[in-house]
Design brief:
This protein has 165 residues and is mainly alpha-helical. It has eight helices and two strands.
Length: 165
């Protein structure tokens, strides 16, 4: 059964998150202010998660994706790791396994380690190529990506270029 109250709250948190990021990029919000706001939203997302993982069947697709975005913007590695582990253990209709890959890679990059699934990039070069953050064992990257439900690196790079250029 869909929890519309929780769904609406997650969508509201994401809207606040996106608005804060726009304000920060525009220079109307300081780094300290955006970091405080992220911590507040992370704390609320953590409280929601402690009660129950906001899986798709509980909150719907859009609110589930809002929760994932909040996790990805979080400054709490322990929380991020808990969510990634929950996603990997979830049923397919409850969560997208590929979202765990984005969280795991973000955590690895923050630790200064090579990413595992190749989801993180630092820039799009002038020639249109994507500058990916280094990843482990490049020969096996596409098989690791396929195992968790991601497209090949070539397809991913094409998608990024279409979205960002």
């Amino acid at each position: 059964m869909l929890n519309s109250e929780l769904s609406e709250r997650l969508l509201q948190l994401l809207a606040e998150d996106q608005d804060g990021l726009r304000q920060y990029r525009a220079g109307t919000l300081s780094l300290g202010e955006i970091n405080r706001a992220i911590r507040v939203r992370t704390e609320e997302a953590r409280k929601i998660f402690k009660i129950e993982f906001p899986k798709k069947r509980l909150v719907g697709e859009d609110a589930y994706r809002a929760f994932i975005a909040l996790v990805l913007h979080s400054d709490d590695p322990e929380f991020m790791d808990q969510v990634a582990n929950t996603i990997r253990a979830s049923e397919t209709e409850d969560a997208d396994k590929s979202h765990a890959a984005f969280i795991i890679d973000k955590l690895l990059v923050r630790e200064g380690k090579p990413q595992r699934y190749g989801t993180q990039y630092s820039a799009i070069n002038e020639d249109g190529s994507v500058a990916f953050v280094p990843f482990e064992d490049p020969k096996e990257i596409d098989s690791r990506r396929a195992e968790i439900g991601l497209s090949s690196m070539k397809e991913y790079e094409e998608t990024i270029r279409k979205i960002r250029v």
